């Protein structure tokens, strides 16, 4: 059974912040001086941030749905609300999801800042090493939150204290300034966290988690040496960290295997034991909507859904059918809810395209038939990505042979085949195969760069990574052009950034809207 670590999030937040806007005064019921007496008090505050990460405005859908739609792999199926602006690049500064994610991220940052402040309020009788570990966890969370914000909005307010004297005096910090702070937080986390996370759960960070995120951050900054060094550290210590590729790719996305999976480095933990018939969708914890959003309208439980996030047909047609990962990642047939009990091809779906299957095939316990508020966790970071980061950074450093080996490890796992034992799907067991082949020895540095980026697209498909890859590698004009998987005539490079929420710009004269909006 899972350790439920997020139940206190909303209760804890009444201490920190009762509002979403940066210019409103925090509302509190307890003073920090009276609340923080033990390390457990600090950790309880940090636990509140994990609840916000699993809320509807964050990994539940408010962050993850726009990331999917902004990529070149997912399009609007059945249209719904302000989400429809993301895929065709028509997002406006008044988009409710632009402001909703912003608000939730800064609420979580306020919570992390309060936890960090609480460390200084503990007595001298508390062991300094324990203080450093607790601070490291809270600072990891803060760095994690800012890492998302900086990539989405560009110049943003950097707030590192829960005490804001005059909110309207807050200014935007440059991306370079914020990245310095993010790296400082993640480095402190790496230096002070233990090899195992608190409670031995992957939804809290360990030293390996911090190293993995440092590798990713340096990769985004094109600091190839530091990126390679951090990824290599994780690989070299994978045994101590209990990190490995699982044998069957499907098991990465099977709820029953997730909690103990050595492939998971950092997870967003959802639980399906929620109650209440009509909770507030903007604040409800554990509200994982990605399963039903990607599920088939008119399908059968648990893959049934609303066909809102549907891959472009080119994504399916350009994916080699010999690749086991295609079968795990997408569903092209299913028993429909039409009383026939016949497995139907995707051409019979209401939205006649193959659908994403990673998030809705094996969801565990769910409160609704569509897997909504299910036990299915999101893999915010897994070991396969560490190997791909080491390959990409190593290749840029001229370590081509080593980089090829990392890619081949991932391809080797794909060749294992496995079992998709989902009743009514037309899928079954797949024997080991010769596809995909190892990367050809002697592949040039430039060609290998393309191979690695394509491997990331396939291996991490629909895991909320592709948009970030498009931005950091400046691939927009290529992938959204006429020959791309999902041509988009409205794409312009200013769309690499979301607009700042217009409400924030209107209230604070120090905020300047991103160019183009």
Entry keywords:
two-stranded antiparallel ribbon, disordered N terminus, single chain, mainly alpha, 21 helices, two-stranded antiparallel sheet, 517 residues, 14 strands
The poorly predicted ranges are 1-20, 24-30, 275-279
Helix content: 40-55%
Structural class from helices and strands?
mainly alpha
Mean of pLDDT: 90
Count, helices: 21
Strand order of the largest sheet: 1-7
What is the alpha-carbon Rg in Å? Answer: 22 Å
Gap between N and C termini:
47 Å
The total of beta strands comes to: 14
Largest sheet: 2 strands, antiparallel
Strand content: 5-15%
Shape: globular
Question: Could you explain how this protein is built, in words?
Answer:
- The chain is mainly α and 517 residues long.
- The protein has helices at 9-16, 32-35, 39-53, 56-60, 64-70, 96-120, 128-153, 175-192, 207-220, 224-236, 238-241, 255-258, 290-294, 313-317, 324-329, 383-396, 400-415, 445-459, 466-472, 476-479, 502-507, and strands at residues 74-76, 156-157, 172-173, 264-268, 296-297, 304-305, 309-311, 330-331, 333-335, 343-345, 355-356, 378-382, 418-419, 429-430.
- The chain has a two-stranded antiparallel sheet with strand order 1-7. Strands 2-3 form a two-stranded antiparallel ribbon. A two-stranded antiparallel ribbon has the order 4-12.
- Helix 3 runs parallel beside helix 7 and helix 10 packs across helix 16 (383-396).
- The protein is globular.
């Amino acid at each position: 059974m899972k350790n439920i670590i997020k139940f206190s999030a909303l209760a804890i937040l009444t201490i920190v912040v009762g509002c979403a806007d940066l210019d409103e005064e925090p509302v509190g019921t307890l003073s920090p001086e009276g609340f923080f007496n033990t390390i457990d008090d600090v950790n309880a505050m940090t636990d509140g941030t994990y609840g916000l990460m699993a809320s509807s405005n964050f990994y539940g859908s408010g962050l993850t749905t726009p990331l999917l739609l902004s990529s070149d792999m997912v399009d609007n199926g059945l249209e719904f609300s302000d989400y429809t602006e993301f895929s065709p690049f028509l997002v406006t500064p008044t988009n409710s999801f632009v402001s909703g994610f912003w608000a939730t991220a800064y609420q979580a940052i306020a919570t992390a800042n309060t936890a960090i402040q609480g460390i200084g309020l503990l007595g001298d009788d508390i062991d300094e090493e324990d203080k450093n570990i607790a601070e490291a966890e809270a600072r990891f969370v803060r760095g994690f939150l800012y890492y998302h914000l900086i990539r989405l909005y560009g110049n943003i307010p950097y707030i590192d204290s829960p005490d804001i004297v005059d909110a309207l005096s807050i200014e935007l910090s440059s991306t370079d300034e914020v990245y310095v702070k993010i790296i400082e937080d993640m480095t402190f986390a790496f230096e002070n966290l233990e090899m195992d996370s608190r409670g031995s759960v992957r939804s809290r960070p360990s030293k390996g988690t911090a190293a993995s995120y440092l590798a990713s951050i340096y990769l985004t900054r094109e600091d190839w040496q530091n990126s390679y060094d951090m990824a290599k550290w994780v690989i070299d210590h994978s045994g101590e960290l209990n990190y490995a590729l699982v044998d069957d790719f499907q098991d990465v996305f099977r709820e029953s295997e997730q909690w103990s999976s050595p492939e998971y480095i950092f997870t967003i933990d959802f639980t399906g034991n929620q109650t209440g018939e009509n909770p507030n969708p903007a604040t409800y914890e554990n509200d994982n909507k990605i399963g039903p959003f990607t599920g088939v309208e008119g399908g059968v439980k648990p893959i049934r859904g609303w066909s809102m996030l549907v891959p472009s047909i080119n994504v399916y047609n350009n994916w080699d059918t010999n690749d086991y990962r295609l079968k795990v990642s997408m569903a092209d047939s299913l028993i429909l809810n039409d009383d026939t009990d016949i497995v139907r091809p995707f051409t019979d779906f209401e939205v006649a395209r193959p659908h994403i299957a990673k998030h809705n095939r094996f969801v565990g316990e769910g409160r609704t038939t569509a897997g909504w508020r299910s036990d299915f966790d999101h893999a915010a970071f897994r070991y396969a990505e560490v190997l791909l980061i080491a390959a990409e950074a190593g290749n840029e450093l001229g370590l081509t042979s080593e980089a090829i080996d990392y890619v081949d490890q991932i391809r080797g796992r794909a060749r294992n085949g496995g079992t998709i034992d989902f009743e009514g799907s037309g899928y079954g067991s797949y024997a080991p195969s010769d596809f995909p082949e190892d990367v050809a020895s002697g592949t040039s540095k430039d060609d290998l760069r393309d191979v690695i980026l394509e491997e990331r697209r396939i291996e991490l498909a629909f895991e909320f990574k592709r948009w970030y890859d498009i931005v950091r590698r400046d691939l927009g004009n290529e992938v959204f052009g006429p020959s791309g998987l999902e041509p988009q005539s409205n794409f312009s490079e200013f769309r690499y950034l979301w607009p700042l929420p217009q409400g924030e710009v209107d209230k604070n004269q120090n905020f300047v809207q991103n160019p183009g909006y």
